[in-house]
Amino acid sequence: MTPAARDAAAITLLDRWLEGQPLEAALTNWARASRFAGSGDREAVRDLVFQAVRRRRSAAALGQGESGRALLLGLAREAGQDLSTWNGEGHAPAPLSEAERALLAAPLPDLPRGVALDCPDWLLPDVDAALGAQAEAVLRRMRDRAPVFLRVNTARTTLEAVAARLAGDGIETRPHPLAETALEVTANPRRLRNSAALAEGEIEMQDAASQAVALAFAAQAKALAASRVLDFCAGGGGKALALAAEGLAVSAHDIDPRRMSDLPARAERAGARIRVLGDVSAGGWEAILADAPCSGSGSWRRAPEAKWRFSAERLAELLRIQDQILDRCAALTAPGGILGYATCSMLRAENEERVAAFLKRHPGWQSLSDLRLSPLDGGDGFFLAVLRKQ
Ligand SMILES: C[S@@+](CC[C@H](N)C(=O)[O-])C[C@H]1O[C@@H](n2cnc3c(N)ncnc32)[C@H](O)[C@@H]1O
Asked: d(Cα 78, Cα 143) in Å, to the nearest integer?
């Protein structure tokens, strides 16, 4: 596909998304119906579509419209591209109209803050309160794609050995200061899919901040000599696997057990022993991690659709669920045990305010530590509070 044909495909996909089709479904349907598109084309179209969704507000303002074509025009205007390839020939988009040509050549206007930063207005006060002077820089960082990170299974190998093995496949990496288990992929991330290191459990795809949270919690659980750790919201098991690699005996639970369906196979591949529990009515856990459902506002670079779907009603519902999970885990924790409360949210409402409300409801608990990471640290936005039952 020519670059202009890729633009035309992205325009079609963005239109479908704007009409209400989920992004992944639109991309999958298009890829199935477009046998002419090679893997490089599919990745390029995906990148373009995701970038337009990340920047939906500013792109719509600069392109002056809520259509796929206007969004790409807006992206091009901000980047100073001329779009002369849009000539209507072959599979290229129709040529620019006079008005579009004038728009593309016009100086960039001053946009309202929420538009320029691609943030819904109703979230700005919380983001400002949470991030203070860093709010703008963080939101700007969120307008671009996230790096690709690997977690090295240090129970089995070393960062150096994995990096050398991946380099043999042309995949370049470098260690990342956020977590001692993290490698950032700097070239050819798409080759990872076929890498033997992944198939053999030497690496997992996991954001570096997520790794840092797992390592910080593991260190406190080990300091307590906790013999058993419960991952109460295990989901796909990213954190459970990271905790197990630190030598902890991990049990995994999730309200939706189907989410854990791949966990036994992933654990086996990694050489980790993780017990998957259907029921956790028995308490007495010395260490529990509650990686709670949240807005995902720290990972909106990877899942940009969620940023525009999120609402005040959904936030209120999440806050209730987070409180319930914390209360349930408090009852399951042994006296003297610890409870880690984690989110991939940057909002105070889901983080510090939930912990403060918990401590008010549970006077017998104290806060041991807080960790707040933002995309300026390199990975996703994450939060971890470790609480102790007296
Ligand atoms: C942020 S995800 C977990 C991600 C996972 N820990 C990881 O690192 O891959 C949150 C999980 O919490 C689960 N969940 C939601 N409500 C819950 C509840 N009341 N009790 C337990 N798990 C819950 C969801 O099904 C979801 O899998």
From this structure: 12
Which domain CATH number covers 178? 3.30.70.1170
Q: Does residue 143 sit within a domain?
A: no
Question: Ligand 1 within 6 A of 313 CB?
Answer: no
282 belongs to a structural domain: yes
91 and 63 in a common domain: yes
Q: Which of the listed residues 254, 319, 354 should we mutate to test ligand 1's pocket, taking the one with most ligand atoms within 8 A of CB?
A: 254
Specify the pLDDT at position 283.
Answer: 85
SS (H, E, C) 162-208: HHHHHHHCCCEEEECCCCCCEEEEEECHHHHHHCHHHHCCCEEECCH
Among the three residues 157, 175, 205, which one is the final residue of a domain in this structure?
A: 205
Angle, CA 44 vertex, CA 135 and CA 9 arms, to 5°: 105
d(CA 105, CA 382): 40
Per-residue three-class SS string for 59-124? HHHHHCCCCHHHHHHHHHHHHCCCCCCCCCCCCCCCCCCHHHHHHHHCCCCCCCHHHHCCCCHHHH
User: In this structure, are 182 and 220 located in the same domain?
Assistant: no
Q: What is the pLDDT of residues 103-136, one digit of tens each?
A: 999 999 999 999 999 999 999 999 999 999 999 9
Known active-site residue 344: yes
Say which DSSP state 147 is in: P
pTM confidence score: 0.95
* Range(s) of the domain holding residue 280: 209-389
| Structural tokens at position 161 | 């050995």
Tokens 């991030």 -> residue? 131
For residue 194, count other CB atoms closer than 10 A to its CB. Answer: 9
H or E element that contains 382:
strand 382-389
Are 295 and 354 contacting, i.e. CB atoms less than 8 angstroms apart? Answer: no
Alpha carbon distances (Å) from 52 to 146, 203, 326: 14, 31, 37
| Ligand 1 binding pocket includes 262 (Cβ within 6 Å) | no
